[in-house]
Design brief:
alpha+beta, Alpha-Beta Plaits, 2 domains, 8-stranded mixed sheet
Length: about 325
Amino acid sequence: MPKLTHVNNEGRAKMVDVSEKTPTLREAVAACTVCLNDETFSLIKNNEIKKGDVLAVAQVAGIMAAKRTSELIPMCHPIAITGADISFTPDEKRSTINITATVRCKGETGVEMEALTAVSTAALTIYDMCKSAQKDIKITNIHLLSKKGGNSEINTMPINTSPTETLPANTMPTVVAVCTSEKKGTIKTSMPEIYVKSNHGIVGDAHAGDRCRQVSFLASESVDKLRDKIPNLEAGVFAENILTSGINIHELPVGTMLRIGTALFEITQIGKDCHNDGCAIKKQTGECVMPREGVFASVIENGTIKPGERIEVE
């Protein structure tokens, strides 16, 4: 296990001494997404927000934040930044704004914290300038895309890439089955299709409602782990709404957006507490995959979903 370098011999926090490091050209790129409703997105696009040009102000705010990161994050070194750039990619179809920050320096330590602070501040500035128009703006997927220079380089998983490395290379993430139940605590039944509604869930399903666990997902690969003990496990037996294939869905972080046709979901929770007395599957096999590998999401955009449809990670 790597040793923490920000702790002194007394076990207290310290700023790492980088005086012996050789100055090198360093770069870090970070990204995040701001989710808006159609009306607010249109106001930004047409420069009709009363506080001013939203993206212009957010760009300046992001650059200023990159330069002042050491004043915000206690153990960050003051860095002489040589370049900072904030870019915005509006997505009209989804009413989102993707923000990317690129920060460079020539020094003894990297600028990943500066890039992350820059995109976060730019996103918060959009929130601040638009909060009078929309109260439920969401900021998601704040993450480091890449880091260059120094002793280590990082190229993290892009925002639109699924964690399928342990699956066959030709596997396409798809919906295997869609399931609903009229009562809670019962096995769900496979349906030819389902309709999901924004801020509600699956129309007709007992778990629908204005909460974070509106729709449940489970990978068929997770179910396969128990097929040796129960060969004829059917879709819905774990109370999952959407059974998937070709994607390790439980490895996706909270906040990830999933697109299935016109429907858009945001992952809100990984796993759950099992029932006190254990579900029927756990009683038969000694374990249940849903508490460990079940995924829960809220519905962001409406849509009809059928088995066989492609799943895209945004």
